[in-house]
Amino acid sequence: MNKSKLLRRISSLGFSMHEYRLFLDTHPGDPQATELFNTCKKKYEAAKEEYEKQFGPLTLNGYNSDEWLKDPWPWDNADN
Prior knowledge:
By secondary structure, the protein is an all-alpha fold. 61% of the residues lie in helices and 0% in strands. The protein has two helices and no strands. The protein has helices at 3-26, 31-55. The radius of gyration is 18 Å and the shape is elongated. The termini are far apart.
């Protein structure tokens, strides 16, 4: 999957998880909503992991979050 499609998938799954959480706040015992939330969360985590392996971290604590420490630093470029 390309970068743009993965980002859209991650975004839509994140939105869905947020909506399920809001619903579960008012319907905490709903087993179908809980199952849907958990399914969505697994898909979100898988999509995020796939993105981060291909394109780098999405968040500060993401996969390979120390990628920014690798050389060259912006001021090390000879183009300055």
